[in-house]
Design brief:
Layout (H helix, E strand, L loop, with lengths): L1 H24 L13 H5 L3 H7 L8 E3 L12 E5 L2 E8 L2 E7 L5 E5 L2 E3 L4 E7 L5 E3 L2 E4 L4 E4 L21 H4 L5 E2 L5 E2 L4 E2 L5 E2 L3 H5 L3 H7 L23 H7 L6 E3 L14 E3 L20 H4 L3 H4 L29 H4 L2 H4 L10 H5 L2 E4 L3 E4 L8 H7 L5 H4 L7 H12 L9 H9 L6 H7 L7 H14 L3 H10 L5 H7 L11 H13 L6 H12 L8 H20 L4 H13 L3 H14 L6 H11 L3 H21 L4 H13 L3 H14 L4 H13 L3 H14 L4 H14 L5
Antiparallel strand pairs: 1-6, 2-3, 3-4, 4-5, 6-7, 7-8, 7-9, 9-10, 11-14, 12-13, 15-16, 17-18
Pfam families: Cytochrome_C554 (PF13435), Paired_CXXCH_1 (PF09699), TPR_16 (PF13432)
Organism: Gimesia panareensis
Protein name: Photosystem I assembly protein Ycf3
Length: 728
C-alpha cells in the first residue's frame, strides 16, 4: 500500500513537472507585434494605478475643448498685444478665439483641443489640411488671466514664430508627447496631415508600450508569463535604471528625431539624438538655460551615475512627489548629517533649509511655469563670479550687498575653500566654447573623466571635434568613435563634418574607421555616419561596407520623409541628393524647403550654390538677394550670434558687397575671437580688398590661434610679399 502511495505521488509530480515544462515552453509565435488596446482595458485589472493616474498631468496633457476641460475665460474677454486684440468667446459648448490669421487679417478660429492644466493651459485650432496650430493666447490657471507666452515680441504672419508658423505647429512640435500612439501621416504630395493617435493624453501604453500581448497572456490559462515576450510590456522595474529612464526621456529631453515609431520597448538612441551642453541651451556649467526638459540635466548628476531613476522620487502614475519636503531626499541621504543647520546653515523649516532650493533651483518658462534643474548640483557662486552662470544662493539673496562674491565667501566659510569637483567642468567647457587654446588639454582629460555624466564627456569630445584641429585632439576624437557610450560616439562624428583628408593614408584610415559605424548597433550613429560619408571624398572600400552605407542612407531618408512637413528635412534631403550627384532631385527638395518655410533662411543659399554649379548664375544671385534680407533680419534679432554674422558676411561677399561682408565678418570674430574659421575668412577678404595692414594684423591673430598650422604661416608669407613686393 505504501509503495502504491509513493508511486502515485511520483507519477503526479512527474506529470506536473512535464505539464509545467510544457506550459513554460509554449510561447506566442516569434515576431508577434503588440498593438494598442486602450486605457479602459488596463483599468479592468489595475484599478489602483488607474485612480492615481486620473487627473494627473499625463491624464490632462491634452483633451477635447469641452466645458469639462476648458479652464480659460471665454466670456467675450479680450487681450491686446502689439496692436492685435484677440477676443475669446463661446457659443454653447464651442469655444473660439478671434485673432490675426495667416493672411494678416482678423478671423475667428474654433478651439479644437486644450493642452495642459497647471500652471497654464494652451489652446489649439485646426487650420486647412489637418494642420493644427497653438493659438497665441494662454490661460494662467493660477492668476486666472490671459497672457501671451512671448510678451515682448511681435510676430507677423510671415514669421515662423507667429502662431500660424512652423514653430507653433502642434503636429510636429507637441503632438508626439501629448498623445498615445501618435502618427503624423503627412502626405508630401498634397501638403496634408492625416494625423492619428490611439488616445488623446499620455495614457498607460505611452509608458508601458502597446498592451495586446500582455492582455493575451493575462487572459490565458498559463501559470507563467511568456518565455519569449516576458509579460508583454516594457521592463521598467529591473535593476538597471536605463529602461525606465529611456521610457521617460523621449518626452522629457531636448532632442532631435532619428527615426519614427518609438515605443517604450525601444532604445532611446535608436529614435532620438540627445542635445549636448550647447551654449544656446545650457549655461557653461550645465545649468538649464533654455527649455531642455530634464533628461539632459539629470544625466549630469551623481544620482544618474548611481542608478537613481524617476520613480525613486515621483509616483509613476499620479506623478506627484513620493514625500513632502526634505523627506524625499532623506530616503537616501542621512537626515542627521544633511537635514540640519550644520549643513544647510539656514533656519529649520525655512525656504533656505529645503534641499531642492539649493540643489534644484528653478527657472521660469512660458511666463508662469517654474521648473527645477534636475542636474542636482552643489551651489557654486564662485562660478558666477568666474563665468557669469546663475547660482541658487543669489536666487533668494538679492539685496545690493548680497553679491555673488558675498555668497562665494559664505560658502568658503561654511564648507572650506576646496571643492571636490574642482576644476568644475563648467570652467573647462566655457573655455572650450570660447575656443581657448589652453583649454584643449583640459578637454582631453575631461573626455576620460568618470566622475561626470556621459553628456559632459560627449560635450568635451564635441568641442575637441569642432574647435581643435590638432593631432592630439584628432586622436581623442577618433578614439571616441569606439566609445561604449552612444552619446560620445555621436559627438565624435562632428569632427568629420566637411573633413578633408590631408593624405591618402589618412583618408584610408579614417574611411575604414567611419565605415565601422555603418553597422553600429545604434541607429542614430549609423545614420549620422551615412550622412557624413555621403558628403566626404571617400567611399567604403568593400562591397559589404557599401551595402551597409546604402542601408543606413535608406534609414536616414525614411526619417527625413517622416518629417516631410518640415523645411529642414527637405533641405537635408536636398544636400544628400546633391552629394550623390542627383541635381534634379536636389533642386526639387530645396524648392520644397523654401515653399514650406518661405521666411526661414538657409534653403535659398543651398539652392543658389546648386544653380551656380550649373551655370545658372543670375537665378543664384536672385536667390541670394532674397536670402540676405532674411539673414540680416535674423542677425538683428540675435546680435550676439557669431555664426549668423559669419553666414551673413559670406552672403554679402557672394553678392559683391565686400564692405558689408567685412563688417559682418569682423563682428563674428569679435563675438567669437577663438574661431579660426571666422578669422581666416576675414583675412582672405582683406587680402582680396588689398587692405594689407588689416590682412597682416588678422593673419597674425590667426597664427596665435593655431601656431602649428602651416597653411596660416604660408598665408602670412604671401601677404608679406604682396604688401611689400619690392622687399623694402
Amino acid at each position: 500500500m505504501k509503495k502504491r502511495w509513493i508511486y502515485g505521488i511520483t507519477i503526479f509530480l512527474c506529470l506536473t513537472s512535464i505539464g509545467l515544462a510544457i506550459d513554460w515552453w509554449t510561447a506566442l509565435p516569434e515576431g508577434e507585434q503588440a498593438t494598442y488596446v486602450g486605457r479602459q482595458t488596463c483599468f479592468e485589472c489595475h484599478q489602483k494605478q488607474a485612480e492615481e493616474w486620473k487627473s494627473s498631468d499625463h491624464d490632462l496633457a491634452m483633451n477635447p475643448a469641452t466645458p469639462e476641460f476648458v479652464l480659460g475665460d471665454f466670456d467675450n474677454t479680450e487681450l491686446e498685444h502689439f496692436g492685435i486684440t484677440s477676443r475669446m468667446s463661446h457659443e454653447g459648448d464651442k469655444y473660439y478665439v478671434t485673432t490675426q490669421g495667416p493672411d494678416g487679417k482678423m478671423a475667428r478660429f474654433e478651439v479644437k483641443y486644450v493642452i495642459g492644466v497647471h500652471p497654464l493651459q494652451q489652446y489649439l485650432a485646426e487650420l486647412e489640411r489637418g494642420k493644427v496650430q497653438v493659438l497665441p493666447v494662454t490661460w494662467d490657471t493660477e492668476m486666472k488671466r490671459w497672457y501671451y507666452a512671448s510678451p515682448d515680441e511681435p510676430f507677423g504672419p510671415e514669421d515662423p514664430l507667429h502662431w500660424t508658423g512652423s514653430a507653433q505647429n502642434w503636429n510636429h512640435m507637441c503632438a508626439e508627447c501629448h498623445t498615445t500612439n501618435w502618427a503624423k501621416n503627412y502626405d508630401i504630395a498634397t501638403d496634408t496631415h492625416h494625423y492619428s493617435f490611439s488616445e488623446m493624453r499620455v495614457s498607460c501604453e505611452a509608458c508601458h508600450g502597446p498592451g495586446s500581448i500582455h492582455v493575451k497572456l493575462a487572459n490565458s490559462h498559463s501559470i507563467f508569463w511568456d518565455r519569449r515576450y516576458g509579460y508583454g510590456l516594457a521592463k521598467l522595474k529591473g535593476k538597471d535604471a536605463t529602461a525606465q529612464l529611456e521610457s521617460c526621456a523621449p518626452c522629457h529631453s531636448h532632442r532631435r528625431h532619428v527615426s519614427p515609431g518609438h515605443t517604450p520597448l525601444d532604445r532611446f538612441h535608436d529614435h532620438y539624438a540627445l542635445s549636448l551642453l550647447e551654449d544656446h541651451l545650457y549655461h557653461p556649467d550645465g545649468q538649464i538655460d533654455e527649455e531642455v526638459y530634464v533628461f539632459g540635466s539629470f544625466t549630469q548628476s551623481k544620482m544618474y551615475r548611481k542608478g537613481v531613476r524617476c520613480t525613486d522620487c515621483h509616483n509613476p502614475h499620479s506623478l506627484r512627489l513620493k514625500f513632502k519636503g526634505n523627506k524625499l531626499c532623506t530616503q537616501c541621504h542621512l537626515e542627521a548629517k544633511y537635514d540640519v543647520p550644520g549643513h544647510h546653515h539656514h533656519k529649520v523649516g525655512s525656504k533656505g533649509a529645503a534641499c531642492v532650493e539649493c540643489h534644484m533651483p528653478t527657472k521660469t518658462y512660458m511666463g508662469v511655469d517654474p521648473r527645477r534643474d534636475h542636474s542636482l548640483r552643489i551651489p557654486r557662486p564662485d562660478l558666477t563670479v568666474k563665468l557669469g552662470t546663475p547660482n541658487a544662493c543669489n536666487q533668494c539673496h538679492t539685496k545690493p550687498n548680497e553679491t555673488p562674491e558675498w555668497a562665494a565667501k559664505k560658502v568658503d566659510e561654511w564648507y572650506g575653500p576646496k571643492r571636490r569637483d574642482d576644476p568644475h567642468y563648467g570652467e573647462i567647457l566655457a573655455a572650450g566654447q570660447a575656443g581657448n587654446p589652453d583649454a584643449e588639454r583640459a578637454l582631453i582629460k575631461l573626455t576620460r573623466e568618470k566622475e561626470v555624466g556621459p553628456i559632459v564627456r560627449a560635450t568635451a569630445v564635441s568641442l575637441l571635434a569642432s574647435r581643435y584641429d590638432t593631432p592630439e585632439s584628432r586622436k581623442v576624437v577618433e578614439r571616441a568613435l569606439k566609445s561604449k557610450e552612444e552619446l560620445v560616439r555621436m559627438a565624435a562624428l562632428r569632427g568629420f563634418e566637411g573633413w578633408n583628408p590631408r593624405t591618402e593614408a589618412e583618408a584610408s584610415r579614417v574611411g575604414k574607421l567611419l565605415a565601422e559605424g555603418l553597422t553600429d548597433d545604434s541607429r542614430g550613429v549609423r545614420t549620422e555616419v551615412a550622412r557624413i560619408l555621403s558628403a566626404l571624398p571617400i567611399m567604403p572600400d568593400t562591397a559589404s561596407n557599401r551595402q551597409a552605407l546604402d542601408r543606413a542612407l535608406k534609414e536616414y531618408r525614411k526619417n527625413l520623409l517622416t518629417d516631410g512637413d518640415q523645411s529642414g528635412s527637405h533641405m537635408s534631403l536636398g544636400i544628400l541628393y546633391a552629394n550623390e550627384g542627383d541635381l534634379k532631385k536636389a533642386e526639387e527638395e530645396f524648392q520644397r524647403a523654401i515653399k514650406l518655410a518661405p521666411a526661414v533662411a538657409g534653403a535659398r543659399s543651398n539652392l543658389a550654390q546648386l544653380l551656380e554649379q550649373q551655370g545658372r548664375t543670375q537665378e543664384a544671385q536672385e536667390l541670394r538677394s532674397e536670402e540676405v534680407k532674411l539673414l540680416a533680419r535674423d542677425a538683428r534679432l540675435l546680435p550676439e550670434n557669431a555664426l549668423l554674422q559669419y553666414r551673413l558676411g559670406l552672403l554679402y561677399y557672394l553678392l559683391g558687397r565686400e564692405d558689408e561682408a567685412a563688417g559682418a565678418l569682423k563682428k563674428a570674430c569679435e563675438l567669437e575671437p577663438q574661431s579660426a574659421d571666422f578669422r581666416l575668412m576675414l583675412t582672405l577678404l582683406y587680402e582680396k580688398q588689398q587692405k594689407w595692414e588689416q590682412a597682416l594684423d588678422s593673419v597674425k591673430q590667426l597664427i596665435q590661434l593655431q601656431p602649428q598650422n602651416p597653411t596660416f604661416r604660408q598665408i602670412q608669407m604671401n601677404l608679406q610679399q604682396k604688401a611689400n613686393p619690392q622687399g623694402k
